[in-house]
C-alpha cells in the first residue's frame, strides 16, 4: 500500500472510526486531493457524504454543499453535528432573519455549509460565501441537473454560473444513478474542466438474485407474500407505495405470522422512525414494511431480501431500493410482486405529485400560499416561479414530465415481463457495456426460482418468537392444571 492510501486510512479512522473505505470512496478522495473535479456515481448507502466530509477535515477547508431539498440538508447537518465533525449549517428559507444574521456574522464557525441553489441567488449571502474561500463545492444529487431525468430541479441549472462566480472551485458532484447521457449533462452544466474524473461503479449487484412474480389479483398477492415471508431468511424489507397498505400488511403479518414487523413511513414521528430503525439494526425486528421514506442513511448490512409489494416508479428507484439488500456480500434476493392494475397506483401518485394546469395557474396567481406548504412538488413549482418561468411554459413542462414518468413506469413493466435475463435488462437500461452471462443464481427469467438453492430458505421455527399475549387462555389452563 502506498503512502497516500496509508494517510487516507489513518484519517478515515481518526475522524470516523471506520477501518475500511467503501467502494469508490478512496478513488474519489484521491481524485479530489490530486486537484481534479470529480463526478462520483456510487450506489445509495455507499457513503458518498463521507467523501466531502473527510476531504474537508484532511485539507482543513470550507465545504459548500448544494442540495435539492431542505430535508436532505437538515439530515446532513444533524449527522455532522452528531459525529462532531465541525460546524455545520443549512442555509434555507426556514432560517429566521435573526438566525441568518447570526450565521453570516459568525461564518468562520462553520466548516460545512449547506445551501439550495435558490438561496445562493441572494447577493449578500453569496458574497459572504465567496469571501469565505470555498475549498470544495459539492453538488449532491447531481442528477437533478438532467432536464429529462426523474428528479429535475430547475434551479440546478444555475449551478454552472454559481461555480464560475465562485472562481471555479474544486468540485465534487455526487449521484447514485446516472446514465452516460446524464453524466455528460452534469459535466457540461457544472462546466467541469476537461481533466475532470468520473468514478463509476456498476449498478450490478451479483449477490442479489432478481425475481419477479405475476399474480392474478390482490388476494393472491397477499397469499404469496405470506408464503414468502414464512420461507425467506430474515431480516427483510417490504416496499409499498402507500402508507395505508404498509400499515395493513404489517397488521396482516402480525396476525398471521410470528414475525416481528413494523411499518415505517412519513406519517410516523421522528422518534418512532428512529426507534424502528434502531430495532431493525439491532435485529429486534424481522421485517420493516416501508415506503420510500425508509432508507436514507440506513446502514444495515445483513438485509437478506427486499420485496416490492407495489411497483417502483422507475428502474432508478428500484435499483436503489433493492440495493439495500446484501451489503455484507452474502446471497440475498429482490422480489417484485405484480398483479395487473398495480400500475394505476403509480399513475395516481403521478397525478398527485405533478401539478396540473389548474393548479399551476392557481399558484401563479397566489404565490404566497406556496410558501405555506411543505410539499416537495410545490417547492419545485415555487422555484420555477422564482426563476421567472411563465405558467404557460410550466403547463407544457409538467405535461412532458408526465409522459416521461409514464415511459419510466412502462420500463418497470417491461422488466417484469421480459423473458430475457433481468440483470442484463437493468444493465442495458443504465447503458452499461458489460453484459453478464446468465446462470441459475442470476434471476427468475424463466419465472421460477428456488430459495433453497440460493441458501435463502429460513431454518424452520428457529428465530420465531411465540407471542404470549396471543395465548392467554392456554397459559391460564396450564396454570390452573398445575394448581
Ligand atoms: P449515500 O449518500 O451514498 O447514500 P451516506 O453518505 O448517507 O450514503 O452514508 C451511508 C452510511 O454509510 C452512513 O451511515 C455512513 O456513516 C456509513 N459509512 C460511510 N462510509 C463508511 C465506511 N467507510 N465504513 C463504514 N460505514 C461507512
Ligand atoms: Mg447521499
TrEMBL record:
Pfam families, alphabetically? DEAD, Helicase_C, RecQ_Zn_bind
- GO CC terms, sorted: bacterial nucleoid; cytoplasm; replisome
Q: Give the matching SUPFAM superfamilies.
A: P-loop containing nucleoside triphosphate hydrolases
Q: Do the record's keywords include Nucleotide-binding?
A: yes
In terms of domain of life, where is this protein from?
A: Bacteria
Occurrences of domain Helicase ATP-binding (ranges): 29-196
Q: Which InterPro entries match?
A: DEAD/DEAH_box_helicase_dom, DNA/RNA_helicase_DEAH_CS, DNA_helicase_ATP-dep_RecQ, Helicase_ATP-bd, Helicase_C-like, P-loop_NTPase, RecQ_Zn-bd
Q: Name one GO biological process term.
A: DNA repair
Molecular function via GO: 3'-5' DNA helicase activity; ATP binding; DNA binding; four-way junction helicase activity; hydrolase activity
Keyword annotations for this protein? ATP-binding, DNA-binding, Helicase, Hydrolase, Nucleotide-binding
Residues annotated as domain Helicase C-terminal: 224-371
Q: Which NCBIfam families does the UniProt record give?
A: recQ_fam
Protein name (database record): ATP-dependent DNA helicase RecQ
Q: State the organism named in the record.
A: Candidatus Ligilactobacillus excrementigallinarum
Amino acid at each position: 500500500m502506498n503512502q497516500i492510501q496509508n494517510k487516507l486510512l489513518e484519517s478515515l479512522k481518526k475522524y470516523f472510526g471506520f477501518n475500511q473505505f467503501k467502494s469508490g470512496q478512496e478513488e474519489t478522495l484521491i481524485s479530489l486531493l490530486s486537484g481534479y473535479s470529480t463526478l462520483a456515481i456510487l450506489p445509495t448507502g455507499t457513503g458518498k457524504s463521507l467523501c466531502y466530509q473527510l476531504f474537508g477535515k484532511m485539507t482543513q477547508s470550507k465545504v459548500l454543499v448544494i442540495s435539492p431539498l431542505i430535508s436532505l440538508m437538515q439530515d446532513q447537518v444533524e449527522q455532522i453535528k452528531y459525529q462532531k465533525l465541525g460546524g455545520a449549517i443549512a442555509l434555507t428559507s426556514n432560517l429566521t432573519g435573526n438566525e441568518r444574521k447570526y450565521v453570516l456574522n459568525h461564518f468562520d464557525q462553520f466548516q460545512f455549509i449547506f445551501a439550495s441553489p435558490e438561496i445562493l441567488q441572494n447577493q449578500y449571502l453569496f458574497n459572504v460565501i465567496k469571501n469565505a474561500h470555498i475549498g470544495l463545492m459539492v453538488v449532491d444529487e447531481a442528477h437533478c441537473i438532467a432536464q429529462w431525468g426523474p428528479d429535475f430541479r430547475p434551479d440546478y441549472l444555475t449551478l454552472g454560473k454559481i461555480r464560475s462566480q465562485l472562481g471555479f472551485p474544486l468540485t465534487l458532484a455526487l449521484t447514485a444513478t446516472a446514465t452516460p447521457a446524464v453524466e455528460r449533462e452534469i459535466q457540461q452544466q457544472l462546466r467541469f474542466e476537461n481533466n475532470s474524473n468520473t468514478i463509476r461503479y456498476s449498478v450490478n449487484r451479483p449477490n442479489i438474485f432478481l425475481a419477479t412474480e405475476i399474480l392474478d389479483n390482490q388476494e393472491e398477492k397477499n397469499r404469496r407474500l405470506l408464503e414468502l415471508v414464512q420461507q425467506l431468511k430474515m431480516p427483510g424489507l417490504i416496499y409499498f407505495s402507500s402508507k395505508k397498505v404498509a400499515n395493513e400488511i404489517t397488521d396482516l403479518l402480525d396476525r398471521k405470522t410470528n414475525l416481528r414487523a413494523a411499518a415505517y413511513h412519513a406519517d410516523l414521528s421522528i422518534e418512532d422512525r428512529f426507534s424502528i430503525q434502531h430495532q431493525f439494526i439491532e435485529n429486534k425486528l424481522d421485517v420493516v414494511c416501508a415506503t420510500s421514506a425508509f432508507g436514507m442513511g440506513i446502514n444495515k448490512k445483513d438485509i437478506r431480501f427486499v420485496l416490492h409489494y407495489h411497483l417502483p416508479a422507475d428502474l432508478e428507484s428500484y435499483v436503489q431500493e433493492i440495493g439495500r439488500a446484501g451489503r455484507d456480500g452474502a446471497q440475498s434476493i429482490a422480489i417484485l410482486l405484480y398483479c395487473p392494475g398495480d400500475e394505476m397506483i403509480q399513475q395516481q401518485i403521478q397525478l398527485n405529485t405533478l401539478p396540473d394546469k389548474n393548479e399551476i395557474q392557481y399558484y401563479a396567481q397566489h404565490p404566497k400560499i406556496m410558501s405555506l406548504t411543505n410539499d416537495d412538488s410545490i417547492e419545485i413549482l415555487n422555484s420555477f416561479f422564482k426563476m421567472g418561468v411563465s405558467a404557460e411554459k410550466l403547463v407544457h413542462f409538467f405535461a412532458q414530465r408526465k409522459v416521461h414518468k409514464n415511459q419510466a413506469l412502462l420500463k418497470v413493466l417491461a422488466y417484469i415481463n421480459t423473458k430475457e435475463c433481468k440483470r442484463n435488462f437493468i444493465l442495458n437500461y443504465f447503458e452499461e457495456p458489460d453484459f453478464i452471462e446468465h446462470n441459475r443464481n442470476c434471476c427468475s427469467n424463466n419465472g421460477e426460482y428456488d430459495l433453497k438453492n440460493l441458501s435463502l430458505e429460513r431454518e424452520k421455527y428457529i428465530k420465531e418468537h411465540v407471542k404470549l399475549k396471543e395465548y392467554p387462555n392456554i397459559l391460564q389452563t396450564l396454570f390452573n392444571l398445575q394448581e
